[in-house]
């Protein structure tokens, strides 16, 4: 059993979904994505949580150029696969109450994007990684610009150009590494071998990769595409972007950037960690001033991602473990929040926080779900957000106290604007608009129920998830640290 | 050799068929003739060819590969010309014949082993093209295109010929091997006349392939010519031009690359930027394709700048990818033009609603031209970048990356028009031939993009 089954099932599903007619498409898409989730569960059950790469597949692709279809799963990839395969069925389920034109194309694109992201999360060959990286971008571009809001065309082309530019520089970096590698290969393990890339080249390679990853996450100051795109995209597209796709950037840093260019990283660690912290502060402040609920969540996402990045750049085992856990939690929470706003805006046709109020009175179940997700987002202890943020802040603390103070206090600030949003939307008196708000039902209940359950279960008992990636993370930190020491 | 003979005799047969009013037989005879020629060409594969006719021609693998790709592209274009030429004029046998004469010149261009044959090949091709550009006799733009093309073409041929003469003067031979030996034997004391000759040849060839700053004829000629002829010029002719360029420089001038690489480097960078930036400002899809073809010439020049063992392969893959994508683009343009009478971007508005197939294949073509992964265009760019980085041309590659980003704007404009802009339009009727050619090209684009192994290992 190799990882290629996991990668190709969504591709086949995407093609199959195209054959369905409008009404049945969403059921077919859901069935396929649940099958993919079941497959992931089988992989998880057979997965041995040590540092090795498992279920590996190596098949010649363009052997003349040293390009192989080479992929495998270790603890770090496993978390990402779980994230992807848990969220995609949930996201498809959130679309059950929408009627999309050309629904079969819509769901096919989502499934195809899933395949692209799974390639990114498992690839061990630079060329394959790049192809997966772009293969995930094309579908989301079309999802956003075909089914998005009014300004979608301008916004999505900006998004596309931004991310495509970043990834082209990464491509140049990958080709450069290929030419440096003694056996002319795109294999990741050849790139990370000590001595293949000297310190001078590592500095360049570092920036080439960093640009691609920083744009994807997005890190300050490369974030300008993000709020517009999140706002204009259809709800499912926003969830795909914020829930899963931005983790491609974070994963790229862990798997590719730092192991390949440890010396470059060591040299520029200060700059990037400061950028990440600026992102936290900036995202939170802007989020505080937002009146549009979806935009508020978009900016808060910049802050959360900034914290994950800062924790990774602190480069401790705890920081990395925190990042793994927080990627999972952030994915779940942010999908929950965007779904909440999707429910509100599809019922009331507005996302203005100030126009709402008192929804808790008319929709108690909705209120409970909203509250749990908000609490998870602001990292209340015993919710999933807490574990990750605690570990990440710990990692930043080891790097610099001043930075952790600004990052940490901003997270408290984050709680303020999130809870303020909750208060304005849900509490107080109902007005003419919100009085008729119908409580959640059917598929909405199911999605929010699952998300709330995950928020609480992961918060109370995080150990099984931390255990999956622990050995791989330890090993990675060790290997890279050894390279640092050689310089000193 | 049999390929060349067949392609030379075929047009004469076609003219006779035309004479005896066998209009219906023209297309099948052309296609079958070309397929036979293709078959003979492929049978020459890997047979350790030696120069023939006193070192005039050499049908090696390089020649086989480039003959095949030009013949296949011509077949696709000929398929598209069903019912197209009939609308322009009644003498349709001549069109097929002239296209094939031009192709005969191209076969000579990719198989020459002597500078005279290069010159003869280019002339056979060019003279046919001058006629083709002006084939709409009563159309003002078509006449302008033909005249401009002829004047510019004659001018550049002069440069080329002058260069060839100077090289002959210095080295005493037209033969590629003899010239190479001359260069190798006199590493430090080559006559300045020889270098001047190399420069003039570069100028002449850059004219032919439409590289800046010798590109001024391209937009007007491409725009004025009938669209199908434009398709022929920007795919088959361009491929042949680069094959000849590469063949000459690999065979003769590789040892003195220190001299001419800086010159070509400047030309490449100018070509990339001029092509891309001007394409941004075009309102007409056809003119945009003309300028984008200039920028693609820039990418193709990468292979000459980073001359090496893999250059031929890079040009082959890039030219194939570019040709099939362009054929789709021009084919779609012909259909849209026939319906709306305009070749502006606006005439593509809302195409996806009524003609999802056409919109889809055109999208695939645009993604391929923009170099997005999982299409053939990406593989082409990937090879070009790899080759250039291999020669440490990092700055060149960075500039190319910037250009690739710029090109997204204008390629996506068509996609945006087709999918996201609404317009009331009637459904286009797509003839069967078009469906076949466009569908086949789109599938080939994706196949090469997903599994380039079967095409990239040829030479």
Automatic annotation (TrEMBL), chain A:
GO terms for biological process: ATP synthesis coupled electron transport; electron transport coupled proton transport. It is a multi-pass membrane protein. Keywords: Membrane, Transmembrane, Transmembrane helix. InterPro entries: NADH_Q_OxRdtase_chainM/4, NADH_UbQ_OxRdtase, ND/Mrp_TM. The chain crosses the membrane at residues 6-22, 29-48, 68-93, 105-124, 130-147, 159-179, 204-223, 235-258, 270-289, 296-315, 327-345, 366-387, 399-419, 446-466. It is found in: Endomembrane system; Membrane. Its main location: membrane. GO terms for molecular function: NADH dehydrogenase (ubiquinone) activity; NADH dehydrogenase activity; ubiquinone binding. Residues 125-411 form the NADH:quinone oxidoreductase/Mrp antiporter transmembrane domain. GO terms for cellular component: endomembrane system; membrane. The keyword Membrane applies. It comes from the Bacteria. Belongs to the complex I subunit 4 family. This is NADH-quinone oxidoreductase subunit M. It comes from Mucilaginibacter frigoritolerans. The lineage of its organism: Bacteria, Pseudomonadati, Bacteroidota, Sphingobacteriia, Sphingobacteriales.
Automatic annotation (TrEMBL), chain B:
One of its GO terms (biological process) is ATP synthesis coupled electron transport. Its EC number is 7.1.1.-. The chain crosses the membrane at residues 25-42, 62-80, 92-112, 118-135, 147-174, 194-216, 228-247, 259-281, 288-309, 315-336, 357-380, 392-412, 432-454. InterPro entries: NADH-Q_OxRdtase_suN/2, ND/Mrp_TM. NDH-1 is composed of 14 different subunits. Subunits NuoA, H, J, K, L, M, N constitute the membrane sector of the complex. NDH-1 shuttles electrons from NADH, via FMN and iron-sulfur (Fe-S) centers, to quinones in the respiratory chain. The immediate electron acceptor for the enzyme in this species is believed to be a menaquinone. Couples the redox reaction to proton translocation (for every two electrons transferred, four hydrogen ions are translocated across the cytoplasmic membrane), and thus conserves the redox energy in a proton gradient. It is a multi-pass membrane protein. The keyword Membrane applies. The keyword Metal-binding does not apply. It is found in: Cell membrane; Endomembrane system; Membrane. It comes from Mucilaginibacter frigoritolerans. GO terms for cellular component: endomembrane system; plasma membrane. It catalyses: a quinone + NADH + 5 H(+)(in) = a quinol + NAD(+) + 4 H(+)(out). Belongs to the complex I subunit 2 family. One of its GO terms (molecular function) is NADH dehydrogenase (quinone) (non-electrogenic) activity. It holds the Pfam family Proton_antipo_M. Residues 114-407 form the NADH:quinone oxidoreductase/Mrp antiporter transmembrane domain. Keywords: Cell membrane, Membrane, NAD, Quinone, Translocase, Transmembrane, Transmembrane helix, Transport. This is NADH-quinone oxidoreductase subunit N.
């Amino acid at each position: 059993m190799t990882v290629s089954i996991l990668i190709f099932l969504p591709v086949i599903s995407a093609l199959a979904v195209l054959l369905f007619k409008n009404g049945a498409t969403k059921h077919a898409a859901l069935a396929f994505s649940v099958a993919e989730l079941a497959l992931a569960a089988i992989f998880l059950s057979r997965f041995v949580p040590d540092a090795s790469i498992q279920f590996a597949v190596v098949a010649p692709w363009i052997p003349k150029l040293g390009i192989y279809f080479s992929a495998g799963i270790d603890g770090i990839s496993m978390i990402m696969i779980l994230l992807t395969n848990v969220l995609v069925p949930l996201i498809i389920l959130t679309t059950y109450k929408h009627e999309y034109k050309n629904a079969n194309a819509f769901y096919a694109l989502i499934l195809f994007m899933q395949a692209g992201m799974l390639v990114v999360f498992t690839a061990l060959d630079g060329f394959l990684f790049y192809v997966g990286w772009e293969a995930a971008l094309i579908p989301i571009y079309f999802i956003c610009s075909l089914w998005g809001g009014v300004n979608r065309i301008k916004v999505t082309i900006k998004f596309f150009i931004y991310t495509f530019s970043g990834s082209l520089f990464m491509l140049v970096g990958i080709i450069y590494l290929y030419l440096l590698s003694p056996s002319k290969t795109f294999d990741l393990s050849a790139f990370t071998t000590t001595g293949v890339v000297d310190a001078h080249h590592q500095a360049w390679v570092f920036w080439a990769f960093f640009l691609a990853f920083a744009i994807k996450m997005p890190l300050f100051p490369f974030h300008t595409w993000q709020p517009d795109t999140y706002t204009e995209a259809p709800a499912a597209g926003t969830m795909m972007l914020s829930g899963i796709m931005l983790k491609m950037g974070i994963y790229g840093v862990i798997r590719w950037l730092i192991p390949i260019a440890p010396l470059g990283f060591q040299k520029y660690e200060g700059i990037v960690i400061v950028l990440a912290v600026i992102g936290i502060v900036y995202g939170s402040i802007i989020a505080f001033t937002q009146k549009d609920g979806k935009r508020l969540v978009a900016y808060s996402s910049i802050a959360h991602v900034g914290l994950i990045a800062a924790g990774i750049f602190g480069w401790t085992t705890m920081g990395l473990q925190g990042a793994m856990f927080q990627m999972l939690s952030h994915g779940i929470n942010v999908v929950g929040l965007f779904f909440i706003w999707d429910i509100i805006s599809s019922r009331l046709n507005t996302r203005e926080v100030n126009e709402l109020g008192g929804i808790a009175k008319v929709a108690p179940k909705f209120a409970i779900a909203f509250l749990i997700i908000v609490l998870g987002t602001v990292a209340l202890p015993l919710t999933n957000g807490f574990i990750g943020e605690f570990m990440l802040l710990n990692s930043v603390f080891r790097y610099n106290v001043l930075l952790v103070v600004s990052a940490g206090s901003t997270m408290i600030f984050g709680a303020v604007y999130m809870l303020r949003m909750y208060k304005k939307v849900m509490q107080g008196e109902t007005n003419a608009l919100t009085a008729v708000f119908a409580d959640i039902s059917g598929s909405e209940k199911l999605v929010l129920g699952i998300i709330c359950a995950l928020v609480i279960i992961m918060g109370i008992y995080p150990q099984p998830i931390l255990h999956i990636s622990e050995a791989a993370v330890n090993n990675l930190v060790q290997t890279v640290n050894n390279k640092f020491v050689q310089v000193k | 050799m049999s390929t060349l003979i067949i392609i030379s005799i075929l047009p004469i047969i076609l003219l006779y068929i035309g004479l005896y009013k066998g209009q219906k037989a023209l297309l099948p005879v052309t296609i079958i003739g070309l397929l036979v020629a293709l078959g003979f060409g492929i049978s020459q594969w890997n047979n350790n060819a030696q120069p023939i006719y006193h070192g005039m021609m050499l049908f090696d693998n390089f020649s086989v590969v480039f003959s095949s790709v030009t013949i296949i592209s011509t077949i696709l274009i000929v398929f598209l010309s069903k019912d197209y030429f009939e609308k322009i004029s009644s003498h349709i046998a001549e069109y097929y014949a002239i296209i094939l004469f031009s192709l005969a010149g191209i076969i000579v261009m990719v198989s020459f082993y002597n500078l005279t044959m290069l010159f003869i090949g280019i002339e056979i091709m060019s003279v046919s093209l001058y006629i083709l550009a002006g084939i709409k006799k009563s159309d003002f733009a078509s006449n302008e295109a033909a005249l401009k093309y002829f004047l510019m073409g004659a001018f550049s041929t002069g440069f080329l010929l002058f260069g060839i003469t100077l090289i002959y003067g210095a080295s005493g031979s037209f033969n590629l091997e003899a010239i190479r030996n001359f260069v190798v034997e006199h590493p430090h004391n080559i006559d300045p006349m020889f270098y001047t000759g190399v420069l003039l040849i570069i100028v002449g060839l850059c004219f032919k392939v439409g590289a800046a700053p010798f590109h001024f004829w391209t937009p007007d000629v491409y725009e004025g010519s009938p669209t199908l002829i434009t398709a022929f010029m920007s795919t088959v002719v361009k491929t042949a031009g680069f094959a000849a360029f590469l063949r000459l420089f690999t065979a003769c001038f590789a040892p003195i690359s220190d001299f001419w690489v800086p010159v070509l480097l400047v030309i490449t960078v100018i070509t990339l930027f001029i092509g891309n930036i001007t394409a941004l400002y075009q309102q007409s899809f056809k003119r945009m394709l003309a300028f984008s073809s200039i920028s693609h010439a820039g990418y193709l020049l990468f292979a000459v700048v980073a001359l090496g063992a893999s250059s031929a392969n890079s040009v082959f893959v890039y030219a194939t990818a570019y040709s099939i994508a362009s054929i789709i683009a021009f084919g779609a343009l012909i259909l849209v033009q026939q319906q709306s009478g305009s070749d502006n971007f606006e005439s593509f508005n809302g195409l996806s609603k009524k003609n999802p197939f056409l919109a889809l294949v055109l999208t695939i073509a645009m993604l391929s031209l923009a170099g997005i992964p999982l299409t053939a265009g990406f593989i082409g760019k990937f090879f070009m970048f790899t080759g250039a980085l291999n020669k440490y041309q990092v700055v060149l590659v960075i500039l190319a990356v910037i250009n690739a980003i710029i090109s997204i704007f204008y390629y996506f404009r068509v996609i945006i028009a087709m999918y996201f802009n609404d317009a009331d339009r009637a459904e286009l009727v797509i003839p069967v031939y078009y469906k076949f050619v466009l569908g086949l090209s789109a599938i080939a684009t994706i196949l090469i993009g997903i599994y380039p192994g079967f095409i990239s290992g040829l030479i």
